[in-house]
Amino acid sequence: MANPRESELSYPLGKALPAPGEVLELAPGLRWVRMALPFALDHINLWLLRDEIEGPSGKVQGWTLVDCGIHNEASKAQWEQIFAHHLDGLPVLRVIVTHFHPDHMGLAHWLTEKWQCRLWISATDYNLARVASGSTVGMGGEAAAAFFGSHGLTDSDSLAKIRGRASYYPSMVPQVPAAYRRLMDGQRLRIGAHEWRCLVGYGHAPEHISLFSESLGVLISGDMVLPRISTNVSVVDVEPEADPLRLYLDSLERLLALPDSTLVLPAHGKPFKGLHARIDQLREHHAERLEDVLGACRAKPCHAAELLDLLFKRKLDLHQTTFAMGESVAHLNALWLEGRLRRERGADGIYRFSTV
Q1: pLDDT score of 225
Q2: Staple partner for 180: which of 20, 119, 122, 315, CB 3.0–4.6 Å?
Q3: How far is residue 152 from each of residues 49, 145, 261, 323, measured CA to CA in Å?
């Protein structure tokens, strides 16, 4: 959903975007890469940070990459062009991944093998990526179809397609590095001339890591704060009673401690300023959606599938429907776990929610 209050944000780079296989320098030693994605959300932003690490024979100059793109030949080709022309002849020293989702994690194995360097990521997201790359976690297969069915998605064609997506995650993340360095909340990393602080965020991913540099005044926000769309916050089949929306909103509150002048580098959309305004917009958006859901459930008991038209004012393809279902359940669970809704499972096996 487009942001109706977008005019409250500012975009210091205007309409500038890095071309495929090219970079834009945002500050000395900070470069922006943009790669295509085969979804309605058609791109991801990746970041290059000038770095220096201690090697066996002394200091080694090079680059840290933040996030990877999905595993496909087009993304590899773009990376090869960047390696050839935009790293100043220096190697990649480490790969940081903000969270386990395929567009962020997909090429981590290929990159770390190519450059013989280490993956840095939170422990929770690393281990979930390892599980998901060998099976499915909340993205397809029988378990996902059964979960969506229990929340009212009964269209046989859609359920058949969801069952057929058991290899959805492995198709974009076929392999995960065998070893990693753990990132944790509050951890401080020296990357080249600047210190970056790890900030954990919950709700969108199990243990999402954003990176803040006070000296640069920059936040690499990953998917936690996006300028034009609201981050997907979903309940998935492996944790059906989860409350990711509350976790996400609480995580946004903690980001208010950063200066409002911070330049936010999001995973999708353009770099922007107006962090506090954007957090307020996201809180307002979800508060409105919660009231919409509460009102619908006050009128009659509702399941997640019948709330899709209320929550999403556009036609959804199957890929979008799976995320929309997870988000619909997230809003229902938030109200249920707060005690504002009751949940009952009918004889048809579908959960319906009504006001207390």
Answers
A1: 98
A2: 119
A3: 46, 11, 44, 14
What's the burial of 54, exposed, middle or buried (CB within 10 Å: 0-12/13-18/19+)?
A: exposed
Q: Domain range spanning residue 219? A: 6-298
Burial of 12 (0-12, 13-18, 19+ CB in 10 A): exposed
CATH number of the domain encompassing residue 289:
3.60.15.10
Q: Mean pLDDT, the chain, as a whole number?
A: 95
How sure is the predictor about 137, in pLDDT bands with cuts at 50, 70 and 90? low
Strand 92-96 to 218-222 pairing: unpaired
State residue 139's pLDDT score: 67
pLDDT at 96 over 70: yes
Q: Reduced to 3 states, what is the DSSP secondary structure of residue 148?
A: helix
Q: What is the pTM of this model?
A: 0.96
Tell whether 257 is covered by a domain: yes
The verdict on residue 288 lying in a domain is yes
CA dist., res. 306 & res. 155, Å (int): 12
The mean-pLDDT minimum among 15-24, 71-80, 84-93, 126-135 falls in 126-135
Q: Kindly state whether residue 205 falls inside one of the protein's structural domains.
A: yes
Domain membership flag for residue 350: no
